[in-house]
Amino acid sequence: TAGAILKAAQGADKKLITSTNVFDIFEGASIGEGKKSVAIEITIQPQDKTLAEDELEALSKRIVENVGKATGATLRS
User: Fold this and answer.
1) If we measure between CA atoms, which residue out of 55, 77, 58, 74 comes closest to residue 5?
2) Which residues pair with 36 in a beta bridge?
3) How far is residue 12's CA from residue 27's CA, in Å, rounded to a whole number?
4) Are 3 and 60 in contact, with CB atoms under 8 Å apart?
5) What is the Cα–Cα distance from 23 to 25, expressed in whole angstroms?
6) 40 vs 60: CA distance, rounded Å
């Protein structure tokens, strides 16, 4: 469910991630029968420093991994 996706994304780093929201859900033959595409928005607000590019990439990877483990979802390319 979209709620499970948001919860898993938030769990990647509860201090840095201040909000998660679904902004689009798409279902159609182009993505496969019984599948849906869920687009989420994540707000990241570090309190003590500006994040470097490698830190943002690591956080992004953790988010994708958490969502995949919790829901079986995959990142569309």
Assistant:
1) 74
2) none
3) 26
4) no
5) 7
6) 12
**Residue reference for tokens 């979209």:** 2
pLDDT tens, residue by residue, 12-46: 999 999 999 999 999 988 888 888 999 999 999 99
The owner of tokens 């496969």 is 32
Q: Quote the crossing angle between the two packed helices 53-71 and 2-10, to the nearest 10°.
A: 140
Partner residues linked to 26 by β-bridges: 37
Stated pTM of the model? 0.86
Report the C-alpha gap between 5 and 40 in whole angstroms. 9
Asked if residues 31 and 54 have their Cβ atoms less than 8 Å apart, the reply is no
What are the tokens at 11? 């769990």
